[in-house]
């Protein structure tokens, strides 16, 4: 012991002799125990020194790593166990020492016992599946691991599952982040109370060892980091270092998992400043430590950080004072910002963009920033560890270790402070990083754990200036990519904006910092500090102003821009994330009156920043033409805080509004955006490429609209409510460039707009005014009303799924805003406005999701076109909403025609915004409305119905919101209305409506028609002269009007004012002389708005005097003008509604309307129709009529086509189906006629030019999946459940065949069974026929067609030319008679004996293959196709490969497969009779011809023909018992249905009906005997002897051969001879079911045994002879089929209970032939009684096949399978999938399980489904179908509570099985219609 210790202390030599390994382990343990004892003594100094020395040696950093790095200390790498050996050695030592001599595992267990696990704290990395419950979460970032989630109770909560993007940690047990009610069972108990105190000596060693261990790790990190030469250190080097350190970090990570006791030791070690100082100061004599300290200082310097050496500075600073203290500020203050500018310059890689980079760097206070940005002083291991973690770009292991420590409270605080202290450094590293995405994720992984906790965030904010640091760091980050703004004044602009093309913005590098900022602002206490700190607000507004005006668009006027920049993505993302989201965060804390002060602060600094901005860009009053930016975050901050102030804080709006001049400036840019939107939609920006449309869409898109367009419109509403209305209106028309259009003249010039854009710009301007005046989002609607309006608008555009609705409703982007998606208010509003349409299925297979559709009353009362226009991203959605509205009105009978958008009543305005309504009552607007009404009436060009609609809407808005002083005004106006202002007397719309305007002076081009008709105006009417002279021409100087107002507002001296105006006039409003000379004309108008409206009514209705005032009949109407009759309708209705409102608001108006209506009005458009015009009108009319005819024809054609498509494609509804085989019905024609769908000719199929059916051949294993159980198997969802395929039909048949092959002759075995249960070939047709030569040329054309098809022409695949159904072969039609009128069908009166002979003869004739005709060639080729359809292993069952018996077996099995499948499609029985789709479109008849033709090539030697054995008695030779090696299969072991097919296919075609019946009768006798034999084996010994005797007594009766008792007793006695029953011991009797067999149950058994044969035979008869299948009840199926097949004598009476034996018709004496049959198996059963018995009991009662039964809830599948390991490669697959047919678990696309270039799913689809696979993708919840070489996504059978799929589990809501969908899937699988129903197929190249 002493020796070891001495060696440990003394041995400091570099090369320490190594001890043998085992000795070493012992030695370590002993040393550890000794040291622990030494340290436990009261005076433990000696022990401590000893331990230090040992650690010094073991953990020395002079290791291979350092050697590898520097290459000089190679010698120091003690005893050479390779580079990793030394580290392992060191780890072993540490483990031993920690355990103090005991075993390490026991030590771990001991420590775990003291774990007060109140928190879960499980840390996970990206792609982990976790849960989030909004009901339990306090912080929106809350997450739970699956275990905690499932152990807590979250029923009925709003939770979802998600795949972690950046990693995270489980919050269970943390009451700061989630409510305690949601804790799981493990973390509910506050367990600290009942956990004993940790014994001191347990962790004593750890306290000594760990500091050295961590220091060692830090030394490694220092050593490994080499400052890069040019760019960042190559990732390779860093990764190498990290790989070497993997074991050490993992060791630390394991320590953290030992629980609370160990974590607190680690916390002590990591935060102890003394330890750190002693070990790392580099002042000791140890050279190695010194060197590493130097490397550390170099690393600090190169990071642009100073290491303050000055003792003076840090003498003052207390450890707790955070990063910056007064002393530091004083000390650094001198260098201030200048130093910073240089030091951060080093990370601009490209100086080229440095143009004016830091022109205007305004930071709040240089001193503070310097300390934040550049000073780092590490005082503990934790701080330096974090420093290196950042330097190495956040290696995952380190991050996990640091996070695993978080459950320790003390550590959490220390770590958070350290993190904040390094914040600036993190930002710098992030900016330089090449892998910024990964790094961002890791940063957020950490920060979200720290900052989501309000208590912690508050503490750090107070102690470490968290807010200052964050804002400053963000500011610095953005400063690195500023460019000079080109908005407004390109040359002299002083404003700088971020450059959206730089990586920082393009790659979203800033998001970790911004997301942290948003996160801490969500805490009330932190946000309050922010809103109170004026300095911070100034800095923040500065930051926001970097985004003001970014990504400026300049309109391309000449050629198309050559490079479409995509920077707008970056710009929108940046504004949303960096500006809007923090804004919403702050707003969420300004909800109550007490917070008024905050709003005032923000508004004040916002206005200051805006004022600075206007100055910086030299803005006066006109925006620069042809440029627009969508980014005005300062405007939006201002707007949103105003809105909040009025809505929630009861602030007086005027107290926070600036002066008029500022308001005028504020409105310009948002208005410019609205005008640009209209320009973009008018295609005026088309040369800027698609991206400008993208910007216009993004601006209004649901995620952006409430941070962009909504605040803009609100700000404009505020400006409009406070500015002069005439000024505002004229500004709008000027911005929209349509001033020149607003003239009474029929012609005009527009100097700023092309004629083709005028109409849409005018529509844009009017629509904007309507939105501005009718939108109430921020002007008085409550949150619930807003939500309702948004929802109605979205639902009106289209039916929506629940999730898309959640996505489309603009939610407040800040998660704490209150309206959370899925919240109570959302659901209740949704149920109030919408009906749920459950998911439905079309037969075409397109699956609908559950949708919400608006209720009728919503369409009736709440449909709001204005809201729809505001919220549509695509213009077509507005049309869609109108179409749906029209459909609703038609359906409900409210209005038949094409309605106009309805007028909707608005919520009342908040009093602060009353001024907005003055816009409706200003003369400028009235003049515009008057002019437009006049122009529409006169049919001037460029006006549309839309314009009229908006004009009427504005008039109606004005009437709804009219001022109340109407009545006295009427009284005051005495004589003729004289006034000095132009046009209208007052500003009230109600009175202005009736004001007649007689003459108007207009400026028109000389060529205009007005000039010629110019009459001397002055004479025409005297009293109006003054009016006309003073102001007729005034309105068209809208611009001048606006200038005048502008001057009034800004009281400047006139000289200055001229200066402001002049330059603009020259550029824009060009002198009139430039175009054709303008001259002044005077028009005679003599109309008022009212008279124009009435004439419009006439014009719209197309009748004279169509308007009749309704109140003349019913005076009541004026008192309650809200009449449902007027709420929906077209323009006529709108005009009537307006006139009614005008009349009800003023008596004068009512009187004037009546007067106008009395005068008979002249016909409206006062144009003379010239002859030429008349001609064009006639032409138009004729064209119109022709067009209508054409429409009608097209409609008819379409409906015809549709009905055809329905019949052709309808797979699931047999009712409306018509047979597609086009056959003629006249009885005398015997030849079938076919139509070729390619060339369209019809005719018979001939030898030379055969016709064929379009068929699809596919291999199928559906039959093999039948089981004898009705219940489908369940998908396994636990380890215990397994699926064994022993009981499937395929397995049973396989076993039977191999059993026969063991004991009997091979060739005979292959005739005794059918194959094709797995990999059988199924043939189906769409029923269309084509000439085979036509088909060949069709295939050629497909081959040359370069269009990428979903199928492979080389494999012979094509789509039917008529119905487009998928197909891959053509089945030739045999020339000859039609099935229905077959001459062979007539019954003959030959005896059965004669028929038997005929059959035998016919079979004996060798079938010569017909001569080489085209038909025979095709028959051959289709046979080849059929063979190639399935894999070789499903065709070759013979022991001798390539034996002809194989082909023979395969061919008749194809017939069997098709018959069996058809039976399954009919539901497993024939009760429903002939009404089945399968029958109508069957190709079995043709298939039989092809098969028969080929089968007859193989003649069966008449010796072996089973027919002989069935119909003739042979000489029995008892000696020949077992001489030959392998006997033939006894006839009783033959499968009767197979025999039937062999017999029929061996006959020459077409077959005669009486031969068919004869074969069936003979086979039935065999079948019945087999049934008796099976029954005898099934019953017990006693039953057997009883029946034997009972039957023997009746043997002599007359119809003994038709009595089952007699026959049964005979069979028993015959089989008795063969020792069949002998070996039953007692044990087996117990197994046999002890039911007593009654005669009824026996009869039922016999019938059930025979039924499958009868069904198949009836089907065959139906197809061969075209006889209908009768329908019947299930219990009489046997008798009905028997009589249909001719087994029952026709005179058979059905009084007494039906007995199956009565169908027997024995060709030879029954008892003789039975004896013969039983004798065949006697010799076999004597030797193999067991097998003999097994072969007799043929299980023939197969139930329908089913897919596996799936659990109700998807989560049960997901939780079991997504972590399950693959049985082949034992890894957890990346894309796990499970087969829904057999439950096999496979790796989708997994290269691990690839075999010969086939991935596992494709391989499995071949083995399990012969090329068809149905897989459920576990991670996506969708089903994928593999069919041969193609695959398709089928959809999901799991839907959420709202009937929606959740592909890829993106939403993570609970999913439930949709039984209907699963049934559809199963139906498509069984009916083999995947190819026809699913449309989107693609090749999988074996890669699935």
In short:
The protein is an alpha+beta fold and 1888 residues long. Helices cover 50% and strands 6% of the residues.
Description:
Helix content is 50%, strand content 6%. With 1888 residues, it is an alpha+beta fold. The strands form eleven sheets. A six-stranded antiparallel beta sheet has the order 22-21-23-24-25-28. Strands 3-2-4 form a three-stranded antiparallel beta sheet. A three-stranded antiparallel beta sheet has the order 17-16-20. Strand 24 (1823-1827) and strand 25 form a beta hairpin. The N terminus is likely disordered.
The order of strands across the largest sheet is: 22-21-23-24-25-28
Helix fraction by DSSP (H/I, runs of at least 4): 40-55%
pLDDT < 50 stretches:
1-24, 61-83, 309-368, 815-822, 965-981, 1012-1036, 1052-1075, 1163-1170, 1207-1229, 1379-1384, 1475-1479, 1518-1523, ...
Question: Helix count, per DSSP?
Answer: 78
Task: Provide keyphrases for this structure.
single chain, 1888 residues, alpha+beta, 6-stranded antiparallel sheet, 3-stranded antiparallel sheet, 28 strands
List the helices and strands and how they pair.
Layout: H1 2-10, H2 21-40, H3 45-58, H4 64-70, H5 82-99, H6 104-112, E1 123-124, E2 129-133, E3 144-145, H7 146-151, E4 159-163, E5 168-169, H8 185-188, H9 204-224, H10 235-256, H11 260-271, H12 273-280, H13 287-302, H14 311-316, H15 326-332, H16 336-343, H17 366-374, H18 381-391, H19 396-404, H20 409-421, H21 423-432, H22 436-451, H23 454-464, H24 466-479, E6 482-484, E7 496-498, H25 503-506, H26 511-521, H27 524-532, H28 534-545, E8 553-554, H29 567-587, H30 596-616, E9 627-628, H31 633-648, H32 660-681, H33 690-700, H34 709-722, H35 725-735, H36 755-774, H37 783-797, H38 802-808, H39 824-833, E10 834-837, E11 851-854, H40 856-862, H41 865-871, H42 875-891, H43 923-937, H44 945-960, H45 966-972, H46 989-992, E12 997-1005, H47 1009-1012, H48 1017-1020, H49 1025-1031, H50 1038-1049, H51 1054-1068, E13 1078-1087, H52 1089-1101, H53 1124-1127, H54 1131-1145, H55 1147-1158, H56 1171-1209, E14 1234-1235, E15 1242-1243, E16 1251-1260, H57 1289-1303, H58 1306-1312, E17 1320-1331, H59 1332-1344, E18 1358-1359, E19 1366-1367, E20 1369-1372, H60 1392-1404, ...
Antiparallel strand pairs: 1-5, 2-3, 2-4, 6-7, 8-9, 10-11, 12-13, 14-15, 16-17, 16-20, 18-19, 21-22, 21-23, 23-24, 24-25, 25-28, 26-27
Helix pairs in contact: 1-3, 2-3, 2-5, 3-9, 5-6, 5-9, 5-10, 9-10, 9-11, 9-18, 10-19, 15-17, 16-17, 19-22, 21-22, 21-24, 22-26, 24-28, 26-29, 28-30, 29-31, 30-31, 31-34, 32-34, 32-36, 35-50, 36-44, 37-39, 37-41, 43-44, 43-52, 44-54, 52-54, 54-55, 60-67, 61-64, 62-64, 62-66, 62-71, 66-67, ...
């Amino acid at each position: 012991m002493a020796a070891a210790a001495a060696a440990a202390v003394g041995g400091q030599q570099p090369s320490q002799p190594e001890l043998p390994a085992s000795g070493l382990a012992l030695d370590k343990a002993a040393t550890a125990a000794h040291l622990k004892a030494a340290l436990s003594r009261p005076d433990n100094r000696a022990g401590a020194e000893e331990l230090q020395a040992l650690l010094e040696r073991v953990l020395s950093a002079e290791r291979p790593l350092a050697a590898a790095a520097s290459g000089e200390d190679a010698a120091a790498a003690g005893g050479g166990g390779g580079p990793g050996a030394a580290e392992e050695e060191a780890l072993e030592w540490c483990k031993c020492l920690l355990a103090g001599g005991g075993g390490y595992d026991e030590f771990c267990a001991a420590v775990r016992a003291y774990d007060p696990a109140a928190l879960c704290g499980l840390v996970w990395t990206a792609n982990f599946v976790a849960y989030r419950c909004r009901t339990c979460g306090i912080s929106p970032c809350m997450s739970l691991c699956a275990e905690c989630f499932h152990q807590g109770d979250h029923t009925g909560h709003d939770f979802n599952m998600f795949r972690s993007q950046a990693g995270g940690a489980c919050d269970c047990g943390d009451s700061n982040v989630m409510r305690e009610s949601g804790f799981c069972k493990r973390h509910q108990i506050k367990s600290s109370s009942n956990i004993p105190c940790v014994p001191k000596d347990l962790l004593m060693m750890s306290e000594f060892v760990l500091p050295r261990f961590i220091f060692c790790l830090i030394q490694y990190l220092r050593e490994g980091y080499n400052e890069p030469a040019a760019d960042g250190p190559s990732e390779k080097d860093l990764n190498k270092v990290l790989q070497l350190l993997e074991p050490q970090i993992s060791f630390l990570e394991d320590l953290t998992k030992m629980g609370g006791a160990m974590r607190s030791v680690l916390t002590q070690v990591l935060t102890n400043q003394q330890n750190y100082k002693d070990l790392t100061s580099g002042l000791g004599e140890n050279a190695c430590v010194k060197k590493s300290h130097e490397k550390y200082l170099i690393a600090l310097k190169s990071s642009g950080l100073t290491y303050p050496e000055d003792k003076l500075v840090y003498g003052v600073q207390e450890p707790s004072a955070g990063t910056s203290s007064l002393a530091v500020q004083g000390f650094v203050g001198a260098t201030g910002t200048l130093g910073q500018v240089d030091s951060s310059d080093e990370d601009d890689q490209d100086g080229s963009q440095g143009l004016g980079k830091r022109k205007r760097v305004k930071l709040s206070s240089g001193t503070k920033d310097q300390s934040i940005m550049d000073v780092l002083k590490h005082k503990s291991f934790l701080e330096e560890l974090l420093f290196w973690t950042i330097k190495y770009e956040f290696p995952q292991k380190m991050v996990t270790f640091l996070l695993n420590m978080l459950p320790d409270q003390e550590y959490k605080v220390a770590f958070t402070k350290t993190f904040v202290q390094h914040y600036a450094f993190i930002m710098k590293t992030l900016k330089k990083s090449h892998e910024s995405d990964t790094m961002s994720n890791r940063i957020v992984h950490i920060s979200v754990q720290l900052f989501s906790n309000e208590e912690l965030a508050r503490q750090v904010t107070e102690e470490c200036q968290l807010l200052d640091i964050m804002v400053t760091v963000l500011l610095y980050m953005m400063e690195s990519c500023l460019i000079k703004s080109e908005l407004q004044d390109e040359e002299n602009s002083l404003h700088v904006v971020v450059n959206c093309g730089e990586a920082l913005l393009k790659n979203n590098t800033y998001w970790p910092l911004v997301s942290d900022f948003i996160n801490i602002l969500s805490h009330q206490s932190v946000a309050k500090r922010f809103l109170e700190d004026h300095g911070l607000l100034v800095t923040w507004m500065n930051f926001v102003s970097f985004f003001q005006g970014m990504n400026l668009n300049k309109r391309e006027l000449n050629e198309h821009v050559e490079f479409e920049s995509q920077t707008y993505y970056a710009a929108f993302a940046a504004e949303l994330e960096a500006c809007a989201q923090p804004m919403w965060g702050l707003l969420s804390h300004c909800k109550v009156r007490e917070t008024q002060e905050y709003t005032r602060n923000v508004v004040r600094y916002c206005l200051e920043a805006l004022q600075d901005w206007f100055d910086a860009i030299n803005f006066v009053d006109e925006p620069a033409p042809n440029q627009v930016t969508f980014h005005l975050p300062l405007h939006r901050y201002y707007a949103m805080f105003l809105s909040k102030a009025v809505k929630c804080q009861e602030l007086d709006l005027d107290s926070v509004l600036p002066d008029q001049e500022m308001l005028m400036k504020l409105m310009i840019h948002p208005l410019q955006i609205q005008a640009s939107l209209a320009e973009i939609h008018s295609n005026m920006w088309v040369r800027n490429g698609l991206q400008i449309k993208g910007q216009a869409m993004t601006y209004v898109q649901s995620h952006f609209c409430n941070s962009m367009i909504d605040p803009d419109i609100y700000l404009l509403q505020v400006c409009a409510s406070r500015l002069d209305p005439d000024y505002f209106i004229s500004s709008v028309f000027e911005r929209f460039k349509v001033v020149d259009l607003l003239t009474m003249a029929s012609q005009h010039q527009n100097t700023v707009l092309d004629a083709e854009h005028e109409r849409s710009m005018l529509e844009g301007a009017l629509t904007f005014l309507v939105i501005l005046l009718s939108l109430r989002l921020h002007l008085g609607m409550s949150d619930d009303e807003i939500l309702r309006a948004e929802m109605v608008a979205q639902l009106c555009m289209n039916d929506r799924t629940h999730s898309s609705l959640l996505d489309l409703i603009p939610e407040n982007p800040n998660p704490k805003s209150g309206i959370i998606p899925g919240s109570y208010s959302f659901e209740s509003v949704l149920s109030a406005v919408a009906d749920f349409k459950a998911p439905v299925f079309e037969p075409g297979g397109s699956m609908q999701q559950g949708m919400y559709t608006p209720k009728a009353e919503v369409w009736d009362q709440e449909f709001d076109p204005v809201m729809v226009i505001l919220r549509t991203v695509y213009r077509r959605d507005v049309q869609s909403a109108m179409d749906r509205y029209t459909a609703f009105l038609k359906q409900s009978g409210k209005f038949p025609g094409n309605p106009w958008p309805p007028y909707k009543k608005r919520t009342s305005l908040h009093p602060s915004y009353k001024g907005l309504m003055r816009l409706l009552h200003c003369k400028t607007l009235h003049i515009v409305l008057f002019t437009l009404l006049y122009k529409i009436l006169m049919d001037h060009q460029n006006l549309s119905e839309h314009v009229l609609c908006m004009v009427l809407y504005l008039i109606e808005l004005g009437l709804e919101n009219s001022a109340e002083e109407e009545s006295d005004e009427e009284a005051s106006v005495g004589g003729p209305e004289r006034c000095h202002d132009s046009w209208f007397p007052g500003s009230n719309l109600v009175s202005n409506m009736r004001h007649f305007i007689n003459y108007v002076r207009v400026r028109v081009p000389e060529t205009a028609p007005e000039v010629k008709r110019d009459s001397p105006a002055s004479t025409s009417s005297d009293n109006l002269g003054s009016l006309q002279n003073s102001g007729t021409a005034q309105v068209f100087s809208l611009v001048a009007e606006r200038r005048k107002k502008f001057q009034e507002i800004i009281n400047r001296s006139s000289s200055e004012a001229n200066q402001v105006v002049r330059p603009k006039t020259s550029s824009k409003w060009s002198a009139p002389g430039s175009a054709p000379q303008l001259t002044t004309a005077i028009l005679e108008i003599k109309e008022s708005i009212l008279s124009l409206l009435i004439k419009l009514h006439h014009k719209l209705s197309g009748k004279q005097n169509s308007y009749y005032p309704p109140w003349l009949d019913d005076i009541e109407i004026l008192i309650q003008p809200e009449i449902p009759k007027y709420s929906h309708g077209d323009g006529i209705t709108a005009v009537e509604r307006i006139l009614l409102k005008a009349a009800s608001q003023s008596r004068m108006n009512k009187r004037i309307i009546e007067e106008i209506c009395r005068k008979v009005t002249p016909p409206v458009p006062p144009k003379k129709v010239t002859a030429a015009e008349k001609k064009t009108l006639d032409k138009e009319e004729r064209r119109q009529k022709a067009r209508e005819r054409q429409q009608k024809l097209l409609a008819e054609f379409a409906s015809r086509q549709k009905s055809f498509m329905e019949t052709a494609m309808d797979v699931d509804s047999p009712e409306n189906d018509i047979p597609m085989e086009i056959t003629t019905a006249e009885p005398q024609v015997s030849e079938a006629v076919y139509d070729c769908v390619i060339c369209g000719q019809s005719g018979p199929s001939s030898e030379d030019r055969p016709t064929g059916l379009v068929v699809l051949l596919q291999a199928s294993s559906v039959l093999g999946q039948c089981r004898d159980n009705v219940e489908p198997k369940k998908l396994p969802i636990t380890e215990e459940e397994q699926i064994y395929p022993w009981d499937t039909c395929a397995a049973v048949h396989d076993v039977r065949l191999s059993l026969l092959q063991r004991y009997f002759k091979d060739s005979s075995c292959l005739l005794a069974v059918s194959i094709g249960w797995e990999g059988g070939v199924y043939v189906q047709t769409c029923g269309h026929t084509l000439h085979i030569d036509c088909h060949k040329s069709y295939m050629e054309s497909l081959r040359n067609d370069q269009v990428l098809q979903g199928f492979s022409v080389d494999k012979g695949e094509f789509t039917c030319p008529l119905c487009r159904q998928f197909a891959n072969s053509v089945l030739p039609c045999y020339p000859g008679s039609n099935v229905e009128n077959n001459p062979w069908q007539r019954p003959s009166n030959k005896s059965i004996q004669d028929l038997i002979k005929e059959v035998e003869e016919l079979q004996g004739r060798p079938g010569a293959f017909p001569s080489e005709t085209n038909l025979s060639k095709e028959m051959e080729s289709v046979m080849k196709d059929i063979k190639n359809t399935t894999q070789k292993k499903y065709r070759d069952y013979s022991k001798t490969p390539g034996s002809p018996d194989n082909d023979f077996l395969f061919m008749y099995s194809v017939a069997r497969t098709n018959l069996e499948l058809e039976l399954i499609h009919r539901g497993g029985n024939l009760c429903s009779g002939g009404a089945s789709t399968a029958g109508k479109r069957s190709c079995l008849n043709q298939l039989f011809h092809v098969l028969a033709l080929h089968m007859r090539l193989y003649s069966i030697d008449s010796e072996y023909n089973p027919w002989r054995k069935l119909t003739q008695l042979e000489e029995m030779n008892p000696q020949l018992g077992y001489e030959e090696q392998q006997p033939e299969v006894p006839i009783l072991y033959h499968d009767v249905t197979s025999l039937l097919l062999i017999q029929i296919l061996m006959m020459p075609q077409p077959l005669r009906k009486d031969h068919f019946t004869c074969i069936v009768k003979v086979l039935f006798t065999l079948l019945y005997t087999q049934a008796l034999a099976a029954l005898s084996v099934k019953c017990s010994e006693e039953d057997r002897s009883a029946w034997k005797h009972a039957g023997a007594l009746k043997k002599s009766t007359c119809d003994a051969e038709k009595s089952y008792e007699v026959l049964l007793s005979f069979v028993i006695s015959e089989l008795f001879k063969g020792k069949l029953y002998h070996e039953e011991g007692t044990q087996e009797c117990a197994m046999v079911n002890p039911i007593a067999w009654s005669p009824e149950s026996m009869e039922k058994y016999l019938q059930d045994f025979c039924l499958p044969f009868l069904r198949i035979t009836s089907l065959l008869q139906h197809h061969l002879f075209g006889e209908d299948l009768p329908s019947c009840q299930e219990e009489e199926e046997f008798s009905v089929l028997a009589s249909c097949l001719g087994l029952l004598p026709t005179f058979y009476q059905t009084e007494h209970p039906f007995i199956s034996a009565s169908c027997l018709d024995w060709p030879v004496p029954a008892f003789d032939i039975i004896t013969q049959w039983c004798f065949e198996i006697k010799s076999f059963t004597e030797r193999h009684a067991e097998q003999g018995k097994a072969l007799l009991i043929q299980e023939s009662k197969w139930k329908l096949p089913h897919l596996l039964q799936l659990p109700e809830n998807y989560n049960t599948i997901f939780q079991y399978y997504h972590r399950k390991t693959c049985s082949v490669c034992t890894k957890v697959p990346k894309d796990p999938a499970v087969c829904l047919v057999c439950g096999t678990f496979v790796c989708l696309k997994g290269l691990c399980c690839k075999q010969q270039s086939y991935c596992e799913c494709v391989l499995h689809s071949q083995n399990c489904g012969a090329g068809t696979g149905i897989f459920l993708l576990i991670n996506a919840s969708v089903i994928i179908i593999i069919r041969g070489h193609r695959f398709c996504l089928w959809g999901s059978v799991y839907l959420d509570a709202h009937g929606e799929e959740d592909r890829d589990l993106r939403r993570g809501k609970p999913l439930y099985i949709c039984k209907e969908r699963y049934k559809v899937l199963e139906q498509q699988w069984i009916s083999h219609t995947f190819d026809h129903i699913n449309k989107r197929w693609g090749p999988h190249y074996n890669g699935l």
